[in-house]
Amino acid sequence: MLPLLMERVINEESYIIKTSRESSTKGFNSKQLIASLTKPMISYYFNEFLAEEYKISLDDKVGKYFGTTHLITLRDLIEHRSGVFDYLELEESFINESRLEDISKIILTKSQYDPPNKVAYSNSGYVLLSRVIEIITGAEYEKAIENFYKTKDIEVSFSKDYSNYIKGWGDGEFIMSPNDYLRFIKLPNIKTYFPKLKNGISYFSGFCPGFETLCCFNENEYFVLFRKGVEDSLFTDELLDLIEGISDGGPGET
User: Fold this and answer.
1) Is 42:130 a contact under the CB 8 Å cutoff?
2) 206-254 confidence digits (pLDDT tens)
3) How would you classify residue 7: left for phi > 0, otherwise alpha for psi between -120 and 50, otherwise beta?
4) 3-state helix, strand, coil in the chain (%, to 5)
5) Which residues are within 8 A (CB) of 233 and not within 5 positions of it... i.e. 6 or more apart?
């Protein structure tokens, strides 16, 4: 897998790449917004920390934490099965001026009470999960995340001024280096928190204006790609197509 990816990205000027092999790499410790690559990290935090330390259940109803009658569960939020209102439909300026607590209330007010029992990618679900972290731990979600991952020797930071785009929360706000994200995808049981391609390769990608991210890994190889100054996600989309070609005897198979 990796030699093909190396060949594909080697001529790109804006990449920051880190693999399990010390080849064809640069900018190991250069930080950037990682967009939706935050989502597996939120999922990991709930499963490996809150469930263990605070004895929560992922089958807890969201209403338990927000004082509502919503039947949506934490698991529904994590697995994109909640069907909650898309907060990105709100005015960007309003979002950027709002607190996490207020945005969470708006999301729930505009959401149905029963989950739709189907998968639909949701940023809002991870905003609600960010607020649940605060309710459970009593700390700001950023500080809770930062402190937890510090125990794993993984540095996560936050800055509302890093991007000109919507500031976001647990749906895409983390700032990290490729080195630190590589440490994350090498944690025990990590494959549980990533979707898989048909060849069994785990992956996740993220995009917001100006930033594009991708990680993929199997038992022996790890690949993290961060790019800046981009206007779309076409590059990572092409890479994912290439990776899928590896699985069925396609042109990428080695």
Assistant:
1) yes
2) 998 888 899 988 887 888 888 887 787 778 888 888 887 764 433 333 2
3) alpha
4) 40, 15, 45
5) 205, 207, 212
Both tokens of residue 26?
A: 């640069």
Degrees (nearest 5) of the Cα angle 233, 239, 240?
90
Give me the DSSP letters along 114-183.
Answer: S--SS----SHHHHHHHHHHHHHHSS-HHHHHHHHHHTTT---B--TTS-SS---STTT--EE-HHHHHH
DSSP letter at 84 equals -
pLDDT digits (tens, 9 = 90+) for 123-143: 999 999 999 999 999 999 999
Query: 170, 141 in Cβ contact below 8 A?
Result: yes
Q: DSSP letter string over 3-45?
A: HHHHHHHTT-SSEEEEESSSSS-B-TT--EE-GGGHHHHHHHH
CB neighbour list of residue 116: distance below 8 Å, 6 or more residues apart: 81, 83
Rg (CA), the chain: 18
Backbone torsions φ then ψ of 142, nearest 5 degrees: -60, -45
Burial per residue of 29-61, b for 16 or more beta-carbon CB atoms within 10 angstroms, e otherwise: eebbbbbbbbbbbbbbbbbbbbeeeeebebeeb
CA 241 to the chain's CA centroid: 20
Q: Give exposure, 83-98, as e/b (b: 16+ Cβ within 10 Å).
A: bbbbbeebeeeebeeb
- Report the relative pairing of strands 32-33 and 175-176 from DSSP bridges: antiparallel
Question: How far is 177 from 182, CA to CA, in rounded Å?
Answer: 9
Most distant CA pair in the chain: distance in Å?
Answer: 54
